[in-house]
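re: ur question from earlier - yeah i can do the single chain one, its not a big deal. heres the input i used so u can compare w yours
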Amino acid sequence: MRAQGILRTWHDDRGFGFIAPTQGGAELFVHISAFPRDGSRPLQGETVSYELARGADGRVQAAKVMRLAVGTQPPQHRHAARTGGVDVPKLLGGLLVLVLLLVLGQWAWQRYRLASQRTDLERLPPAVSPVLPDTTPGASPYRCDGRTHCSQMTSCAEATWFINHCPGTQMDGNHDGVPCEQQWCTSR
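and the output i got, formated as tokens:
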């Protein structure tokens, strides 16, 4: 059986209030979950109809609340939007989305340009400059012929010439400029 009453107090921040029954009696507790989920908040002073039910604590409270005078007072936040007021949170949210899209677009453009530059570089032939043997006439009896180790040398002079003129030699282990110290260029 439905009863009627007036919403005497409403604590919007906490989501509950109290209904004063029209037929008299003690005020009834009502929770926000008892109201219809139509998006409008309960308003203090509005007339409602309700059913009686027991809450989790065993006390009688209002349930299945219906508004009897729906639309008599439009909610204030909807009224402000209709009169042309600026909704600052929506404006800031839209601005934030726009900035994020711009940043994402810039990042994607940079990645695209970098990928296209790599593709262009891959199409180019490799820039290899071959190691040419030293062919200066009469300058030296040696030439870079691919030998890199001390066991392939015949003298200290040859090993010294190789580490100074040929790439990739492995004859100066301690990098002091003296090659093959144990075989050819021993200290005297």
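The CA atoms of residues 57 and 68 lie 28 Å apart. not sure if urs matches, ping me
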